[in-house]
Specification:
By secondary structure, the protein is α/β, with parallel strands linked by helices. It is built from 17 helices and twelve strands. It folds into two domains: 311 residues, 3-Layer(aba) Sandwich (Rossmann fold); 199 residues, DhaL domain (Serine Threonine Protein Phosphatase 5, Tetratricopeptide repeat, Alpha Horseshoe). Keywords: ATP-binding, Cobalt, FAD, Flavoprotein, Kinase, Lyase, Magnesium, Manganese, Metal-binding, Multifunctional enzyme, Nucleotide-binding, Phosphoprotein, Transferase.
Length: 569
């Protein structure tokens, strides 16, 4: 049974509503019921009140849409369970007594919701209340919908918004019913999932293989229309849009080139924001390629299915009136604060500032020739690529497991740079160019640290060609790394290898020292220091958050530095 961060299985729906209300001064709970109401109920007098709801587990739906300009109240059931007739009726009574001139129930097309809200409606009417019900079915999954009709899913949130804006503007019950019914018919939604979800205390309702995704699932984990191999985001979005707009699909949405739509890219609960952004971009591109204008795009978690890793796309064809209703202000906490403007992939980019040209380096130093530089750099690149997997494995114990990938990016960047131009032979220019390259291409903290080291070292080497200059350059580089990185020798970082090597390189300052022997001693010192980091307690970097008992391997950064120095030799 999957882990859940709840107090109790039976109380999770109540606890979630209590948490929502405690954090929002504009909401109130109805005593004895899972009902959330606007705190300013007197403002409903003389207006149409809107009531929606359904099972819990779809947060922020539905209580997150209670507020001025959207719902007046929301009724929640237990997880994936329709709310009781008694709670729906209690909410209707409260709204009627607050002076609402009519009450509209907005219900997703599920049997339980229709039955419970419908029964409450009949009871309320017998008490004299003016109550109507709109059933939303926006699911585009099934090509031949059965008797139950299309399921109500994320598009229902747009119906809440349109109805709420109309009610706030003083529209009557008949007008609201007419306009939201028309809007619902010009709307469609389709879901895609990479994983199942599980009700607290229960096992997942179905299983998906590691390489499978399912098209057209419902928001309770109901079966979709087909399982397929996991596709790249662009292909997955194209598959969804084709299915949603296929004229042979009885539940399709008709889109004609030139029409305007509101796009909702909805996280079904467990998809990362990174993936959601990728899907949103793909959806905008694919719609634009069809000649569709995306008048507004809403991206976020609007109607979820607990922790399901998946996404749904909703399209509503809009005219200027509908768009004004979508743009109308609301205080509902779950409605996104989106700018009033279209979505497009064709936005003009801000031009990047040109690098400020520095003074030409007037160097006459006798640095190694370009051919020698290329040979050394090629050995460094080969070494980093050879130890990529080893560095990743070492990094998994204390970091995010990408140290090898980061250094491999550096190696590929250096190779590409050497193919495009011969590297400068002057040491200062060489290190300065490498610093710029790694800062741009390497990424991660390592890229910045290497950039700091090389920039400071290059500055120290300027105008010098003596052997002692290299000892000074390494010291300058280490000082810069410590100044900004915050680490020190003994903190189990790449500095341990560098500082050990630097100490050995101080021998270059001794007149008559053999530079090759000094360099060999420096490399050996770095290798010994790298190996010794396995016995250190981390004092900086991600590893400092890990118990020292779990750090049984040398630091990957220190190992990488030692390997680079060995390749230089």
């Amino acid at each position: 049974i999957p882990k859940k961060l709840v107090n109790s299985v039976c109380g999770c729906a109540d606890d979630a509503l209590a948490g929502l209300v405690s954090c929002n001064p504009g909401l109130r709970l109805l005593r004895g019921h899972r009902v959330v109401l606007r705190a300013d109920l007197p403002a409903v007098r003389g207006r149409v009140a809107l009531l929606a709801g359904g099972g819990s587990g779809h947060e922020p739906a539905h209580a997150g849409y209670v507020g001025q300009g959207m719902l007046t109240g929301a009724v929640a059931g237990a997880v994936f369970t329709s709310p009781s007739v008694g709670s729906v009726l209690a909410a209707i009574r409260v709204l009627a007594r607050a002076g609402a001139v009519g009450i509209l129930l907005i219900v997703k097309n599920y049997t339980g919701d229709r039955l419970n809200f419908g029964m409450a409606l009949e009871r309320a009417r017998s008490e004299g209340a003016d109550v109507r019900m709109v059933v939303v079915g926006d699911d585009c999954a099934f090509t031949t919908p059965g008797k139950a009709g299309r399921r109500g899913i994320c598009g229902t949130v747009l119906v809440h918004k349109v109805a709420g804006a109309l009610a706030e503007a003083g529209a009557g019950l008949d007008e609201i019913v007419e306009k939201v019914t028309a809007a619902s018919k010009a709307m469609g939604t389709l879901g895609l999932s990479l994983s199942p979800c599980s009700i607290p205390g229960s096992k997942p309702s179905f299983q998906l293989a590691e390489d499978e995704m399912e098209l057209g699932l419902g928001i309770h984990g109901e079966a979709g229309v087909r399982r397929m191999k996991v596709l790249p985001a662009d292909e997955a979005v194209e598959t969804m849009l084709k299915h949603m707009t296929d004229p042979s699909n009885a539940s399709h949405i008709s889109l004609t080139p030139g029409c305007s739509v509101v796009l909702m890219v909805n996280n079904l609960g467990g998809l990362s924001c990174l993936e959601l952004g990728i899907v949103a971009g793909a959806a905008v591109r694919k719609l634009e390629s069809r000649g569709i204008r995306i008048a507004r795009a809403l991206v976020g978690s609007f109607m979820t299915a607990l922790e399901m890793a998946g996404v749904s796309l909703t399209l509503m064809v809009v005219d200027e009136e509908l768009l004004r209703l979508i743009d109308a202000k609301t205080t509902a906490m779950a409605w996104p604060n989106i700018p009033a403007g279209p979505a497009t992939t064709r936005r003009e980019e801000v031009p990047a500032p040109m690098d400020v040209p520095g003074k030409p380096l007037d160097e006459t130093g006798t640095g190694p020739g370009a051919a020698q530089v290329e040979q050394v750099l090629e050995r460094v690149c080969s070494t980093l690529l050879d130890i990529q997997d080893k560095l990743n494995q070492l990094d998994r114990a204390a970091g995010d497991g990408d140290c090898g990938h980061t250094h491999a990016r550096a190696a590929h960047a250096i190779r590409e740079w050497m193919r495009s131009r011969p590297p400068p032979a002057a040491p200062s220019q060489l290190l300065s160019c490498l610093a710029d390259l790694l800062l741009e291409k390497m990424g991660g903290s390592s890229g910045v640290l290497y950039g700091l080291f090389l920039t400071a070292a290059a500055r120290s080497l300027r105008g010098r060609s003596d052997h002692a200059a290299w000892a000074d350059a390494v010291d300058s580089g280490i000082d810069a790394m410590q100044r900004y990185g915050g680490a020190a020798p003994g903190d189990r970082t790449m500095l341990d290898s560098l500082c050990a090597a630097a100490k050995a390189l101080h021998s270059l300052r001794v007149p008559g020292a053999d530079p090759l022997q000094v360099l060999e001693a420096a490399v050996q010192s770095a290798e010994v220091a790298a190996e010794a980091t396995k016995h250190m307690e981390a004092g900086a970097g991600r590893a400092s958050y890990i118990r020292s008992s779990r750090l049984e391997h040398p630091d990957p950064g220190a190992v990488a530095v030692a390997a680079v120095l060995r390749a230089v030799l």
